[in-house]
Design goal:
- The chain is mainly beta.
- It has a five-stranded antiparallel beta sheet with strand order 1-4-5-6-7. Strands 2-3 form a two-stranded antiparallel sheet.
- It starts with a strand and ends in a 7-residue tail after the last strand.
- The relative contact order is 0.18.
Amino acid sequence: MSIAINKSKCVGCKRCIEVCPGNLIKLVDSKAVIKREKDCWGCTSCLKECQTGAIAFFLGADIGGRGSVLSVSDKGDIRTWMVTAPDQSTKTIVVNKKESNKY
């Protein structure tokens, strides 16, 4: 499991660096990069914190993702999770953050 950072979308805000519990992300030339991809344990903190959509999470075969990539975006109280499969088909999950913890 690991993240992928799209440098062309990264604005260098450092939010991902601040939330990474493994201290695995650093800035190089004002862009975020992951130091050692193999050390990422997949908490997705950086993914949820990135406001530009520059970070995606690789869903490998070992966790049933078959090489899909997970990305997330926020708009107000709505968080949208999108899973893109290797064949470019997508599945979308929309969560209202105000209602996400209701039991």
